[in-house]
Amino acid sequence: MALVVQKYGGSSVADASCIKRVAQRIVATKKAGNDVVVIVSAMGDTTDELLDLAQQVSPLPPGRELDMLLTSGERISMALLAMAIANLGQEARSFTGSQAGVITDSSHGRARIIDVTPGRIRGALDGGQIAIVAGFQGVSQDTKDITTLGRGGSDTTAVALAAALDADVCEIYTDVDGVFTADPRIVPAARKIPRISYDEMMEMAACGAKILHLRCVEYARRFGLPIHVRSSFSSKEGTWVVSDPDSEGKEMEQPIISGVAHDRSEAKITVVGVPDKVGEAATIFKTLADAEVNIDMIVQNVSAATTGRTDISFTLPTSDGSTALTALKKIQERIGFESLLFDDQIGKVSLIGAGMRSHPGVTAMFFAALADAGVNIEMISTSEIRISVIVGQDDVDTAVGAAHRAFDLDADQVEAVIYGGTGR
Amino acid sequence: MALVVQKYGGSSVADASCIKRVAQRIVATKKAGNDVVVIVSAMGDTTDELLDLAQQVSPLPPGRELDMLLTSGERISMALLAMAIANLGQEARSFTGSQAGVITDSSHGRARIIDVTPGRIRGALDGGQIAIVAGFQGVSQDTKDITTLGRGGSDTTAVALAAALDADVCEIYTDVDGVFTADPRIVPAARKIPRISYDEMMEMAACGAKILHLRCVEYARRFGLPIHVRSSFSSKEGTWVVSDPDSEGKEMEQPIISGVAHDRSEAKITVVGVPDKVGEAATIFKTLADAEVNIDMIVQNVSAATTGRTDISFTLPTSDGSTALTALKKIQERIGFESLLFDDQIGKVSLIGAGMRSHPGVTAMFFAALADAGVNIEMISTSEIRISVIVGQDDVDTAVGAAHRAFDLDADQVEAVIYGGTGR
């Protein structure tokens, strides 16, 4: 008998009929002889509706109260799901994050899980019951106040509970069939990836693939917990996220590139004419860190010998743009830079693949493909298993498609073969 | 500095603008130098909407899960109210029933309060904060599951917390100005009652006055806690419910009759032709009690000497009608009664007044007024401070108006004077 943790997102429980369908799947898993723990998000647009209500009463609601408000969303979906399961003749018990033992710090709106003490969940399983747990929420260790985990919170709840319960698998249900080699809306020939490593999945998530949140994959990697991303609309196998995707030898040769991710949510700021003195860049990025701005890529031009000045460009979430600009304005005089440029018409395209480690020439091939497609590269950054470029936002689709084709990821193509090349 | 507990019902917090208005009243009470604890119901029709959702997924949802679902309603309203108060510059903290220490038994849907341990509420007050508490809900002592208190639950929460905190007053806010001598929709000349005793208020509540639930008045009486029923739309004094309304000597002479209540929610069942043997009535009412049917009034005809049979009539909530009839059908053969009659076209009209104790003739005057108005009396029941009659449902308005006039309760009338009479 396996212990299966399943997570259903808001679109999977959007209305009563969705909930009844999900209940049938859960009952089928239970009847197949498994212990089942289900993590559920708020129904459809509930969270947005609650946020809208909050805005109507207060422009800047206190975090504690906003968390109290938002956590009612999962309370509704989990109770309804437990009822739907009971209606199918199986016993189910719903539990809030607090009841399920999800202990967090007290950072309202973006709490981090400190500990998971799932005594009541174990009790329910021992009693033959299906446990339904509210995703996205916990209880603060210090204040005993209700907290929320922020973006990707329900996935994180699922993985954290699965790890604490030593589950055999954490199934993340979504409205697509799994993780794809590229966004199928941009690349119709994109294929489902059967197995992918935690490292690659983390890079995918960090580069804009929205299917799993970085945080939940990190958590799963730490505990070696297999994640199975699959569709709640079919019983097909989805994508397995595991330590070593090759271990089962299912594929003779893993592709060099696992997928192409893209992200349109970033903007670029250029600090123009920074005096080329020691410590100026450090001051700039310290200022941004203090303002809690997340920086992604950074490029510094070679200083022009004639002026003794340089330009520093970096990318950041577009939503952090005004915070960053305001913070930098304040140090303009002290640093003595000339001006600030802001460009939100950019996009990031990333190639991800563990095969890069052992295959030189990937970068050259990627850049050649973009050049052939007429796409200009503005910035570049790399990791051991990833190459990212910043391009104009209008070029994102073209760049993704070109890269996908160049590395033979299109469906029905044969494995890519890379000839020689100049190394990365 | 006084400790004021305020309770706002669903219509007082129906939308964002209502919530902001309530927040202003709460802040004004706080600024006047009081400690303030607020009990709040779910917004407007939230509870009905949640019940409707439950019906969509399961015809008979488990009580535990229904309670989990319904308690999300107050969670939403209390968090929004705390936000609205924070927006006015006062610190507020919302607490679930469980966090507020409302400990109940585990009867889901109609839990009874066992204990109140308001440590966190006291802590909030000591910190200068306004405490907002979810009405209607608690946590079961045994199972630690979330419970709801059933009908009148939020009022009961308010009174229970006020008693546990030794509050100076429990203010129940509603959409009318207080308790009236009769329903103003039926008797336009009805007056607001400035002060009324717990006993009279309990009789009023039991006889259909919907403004306060019987249970909360009972609770307040046990702890000698003054209740102030008032409008959330004005700052006028409402009705004080206290032990001894005359103690302040505000009125030279209390009226004999405090008010006229009515109730259209009952039905009458007649068990026809019951053999006149010892124990038959006991069997009938034991059967009904086992079926959890609440009986109100009972009348048994004098047995007809010729047949040795009698008729037994009783009233009950119309909603219990089919349960009662089904239970009685099952014992028809054993008891040997002839048939069952069901009549839901009845209404109950009740005169309530502590002055009845010392004034004979009230019953005679009441019956004369009904006779003059052409109203036929079907059943009668009395307590020390109440006379109730069952009349045809179409006669209810006429009967209420006639009684109200006969006892000089109409506004601008002088105090009633009762001449002699035959006693009750």
UniProtKB/TrEMBL annotation, chains A, B:
<keyword id="KW-0457">Lysine biosynthesis</keyword>
<protein>
    <recommendedName>
        <fullName>Aspartokinase</fullName>
        <ecNumber>2.7.2.4</ecNumber>
    </recommendedName>
</protein>
<dbReference type="Pfam" id="PF00696">
    <property type="entry name" value="AA_kinase"/>
</dbReference>
<dbReference type="Pfam" id="PF22468">
    <property type="entry name" value="ACT_9"/>
</dbReference>
<comment type="similarity">
    <text>Belongs to the aspartokinase family.</text>
</comment>
<dbReference type="InterPro" id="IPR045865">
    <property type="entry name" value="ACT-like_dom_sf"/>
</dbReference>
<keyword id="KW-0028">Amino-acid biosynthesis</keyword>
<dbReference type="InterPro" id="IPR018042">
    <property type="entry name" value="Aspartate_kinase_CS"/>
</dbReference>
<keyword id="KW-0547">Nucleotide-binding</keyword>
<comment type="pathway">
    <text>Amino-acid biosynthesis; L-lysine biosynthesis via DAP pathway; (S)-tetrahydrodipicolinate from L-aspartate: step 1/4.</text>
</comment>
<dbReference type="InterPro" id="IPR041740">
    <property type="entry name" value="AKii-LysC-BS"/>
</dbReference>
<keyword id="KW-0418">Kinase</keyword>
<dbReference type="InterPro" id="IPR005260">
    <property type="entry name" value="Asp_kin_monofn"/>
</dbReference>
<dbReference type="InterPro" id="IPR054352">
    <property type="entry name" value="ACT_Aspartokinase"/>
</dbReference>
<keyword id="KW-0220">Diaminopimelate biosynthesis</keyword>
<comment type="function">
    <text>Catalyzes the phosphorylation of the beta-carboxyl group of aspartic acid with ATP to yield 4-phospho-L-aspartate, which is involved in the branched biosynthetic pathway leading to the biosynthesis of amino acids lysine, threonine, isoleucine and methionine.</text>
</comment>
<dbReference type="GO" id="GO:0016301">
    <property type="term" value="F:kinase activity"/>
</dbReference>
<keyword id="KW-0808">Transferase</keyword>
<keyword id="KW-0067">ATP-binding</keyword>
<dbReference type="InterPro" id="IPR002912">
    <property type="entry name" value="ACT_dom"/>
</dbReference>
<feature type="domain" description="ACT">
    <location>
        <begin position="269"/>
        <end position="354"/>
    </location>
</feature>
<dbReference type="InterPro" id="IPR001048">
    <property type="entry name" value="Asp/Glu/Uridylate_kinase"/>
</dbReference>
<dbReference type="InterPro" id="IPR036393">
    <property type="entry name" value="AceGlu_kinase-like_sf"/>
</dbReference>
<dbReference type="InterPro" id="IPR001341">
    <property type="entry name" value="Asp_kinase"/>
</dbReference>
<comment type="pathway">
    <text>Amino-acid biosynthesis; L-threonine biosynthesis; L-threonine from L-aspartate: step 1/5.</text>
</comment>
